[in-house]
Design the sequence.
């Protein structure tokens, strides 16, 4: 999930510093292991992602959420795909239409977005969440019944203060996670996902526009059963109080598209410098190095931007069954 100010836009990847346009950079964040020392909230006890055990394991089925969240999106006209170096991201315009509703327990004047899992008060209705953007993590951040998936898509929404006063002017983030499982059958890949990955620019900082309408609903699985819990942003500042939904049925991505995605967000080696030239000359004996891009950089590794799973600390998991 994203962090940063202003609609939570900065994705924190494996490479913490770098992507400078000159010199070699190898300063890694080790998927968040160093964050607790730098960001107070990353030391919290309601952090994300988490391991989501199989429902019904050890005879303990997840309890029903009592009232369900609902996710429905309209088509997106001429969307822009941004490669920010860590992920591909599609920002949703302010006038984008959707129908995403989140159930609330207790008095709406004081309720929080996570009341459905944190309160025992009766359900008092629902509020609207406005989608802001979606992006991807490789590999998945949540681990579902022991499985990591090739990618995890996050659709980031905000509940605004006019819906829930506790969310104030900044809004409260609500995130939907969808797993992407690898398939060798291209016909099983959503054509809309294919359009996005094929349009994705290969170089950091570049963006591309998909002509026509993109059906965002087609990025969701047919079965929308989800597990919900109270967690956090998966990147600094690791803000808690976030209502997570992770759908249990993955959509599919092909090896060809996954490879394109990983290359597009891969780590860069930028030159020229004597050591870089020497090392790449050695490497060239064994494999064909990727071409140098317009910034004088080469992709040298597949891109990864996932945080390690965090302790559940007894948090309740609930099931929204469809
Ligand atoms: Zn994310």
Sequence:
């Amino acid at each position: 999930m994203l962090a940063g100010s202003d609609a939570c836009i900065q994705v924190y990847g494996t490479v913490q510093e770098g992507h400078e346009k000159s010199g070699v950079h190898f300063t890694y964040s080790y998927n968040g292991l160093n964050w607790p020392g730098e960001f107070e909230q990353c030391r919290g006890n309601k952090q994300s992602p988490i391991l989501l055990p199989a429902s019904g394991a050890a005879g303990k089925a997840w309890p029903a959420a009592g009232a369900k969240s609902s996710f429905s999106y309209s088509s997106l006209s001429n969307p822009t795909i941004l490669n920010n170096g860590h992920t591909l991201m599609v920002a949703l315009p302010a006038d984008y239409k959707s129908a995403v509703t989140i159930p609330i327990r207790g008095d709406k004047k004081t309720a929080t977005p996570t009341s459905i899992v944190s309160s025992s008060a009766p359900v008092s209705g629902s509020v609207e969440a406005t989608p802001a953007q979606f992006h991807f993590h490789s590999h998945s951040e949540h681990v579902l019944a022991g499985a990591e998936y090739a990618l995890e898509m996050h659709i980031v929404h905000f509940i605004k203060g006019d819906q829930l006063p506790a969310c104030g002017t900044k809004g409260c983030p609500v995130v939907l996670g969808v797993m992407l499982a690898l398939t060798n059958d291209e016909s099983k890949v959503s054509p809309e996902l294919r359009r996005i990955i094929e349009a994705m620019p290969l170089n950091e900082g570049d963006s591309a526009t998909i002509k026509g309408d993109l059906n965002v609903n087609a990025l969701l699985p047919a079965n929308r059963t989800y597990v919900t819990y109270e967690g956090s942003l998966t990147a600094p500042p690791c803000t808690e109080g976030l209502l997570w939904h992770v759908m249990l049925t993955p959509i599919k991505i092909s090896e060809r598209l996954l490879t394109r995605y990983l290359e597009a967000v891969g780590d860069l080696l930028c030159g020229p410098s004597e050591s870089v030239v020497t090392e790449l000359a050695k490497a060239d004996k064994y494999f064909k190095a990727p071409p140098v891009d317009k910034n004088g950089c080469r992709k040298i590794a597949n891109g990864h931007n996932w945080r390690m799973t965090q302790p559940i600390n007894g948090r309740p998991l609930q099931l929204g069954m469809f």
